[in-house]
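Example 3.2
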Amino acid sequence: MLNVYDLRLEEPKTPLWKIALRLNLFRLEQGMTTPPPDKMNVVSATVSRHLKKAKAIIANVGEERFP
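Structure, written as tokens:
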């Protein structure tokens, strides 16, 4: 989650599915440059959940609450 969060901070305009590819959270079949449209939404949603959880953990640490 931290890697996803850090990459999103470095490159805020990068699409979520590209973040997944760069961090090897999703692998493309040989010869493909982008995921199929049906999988692109799933991959983006997964990365979005990772970002949401990372932000929640960071906020809790700031309030001295730990998971």
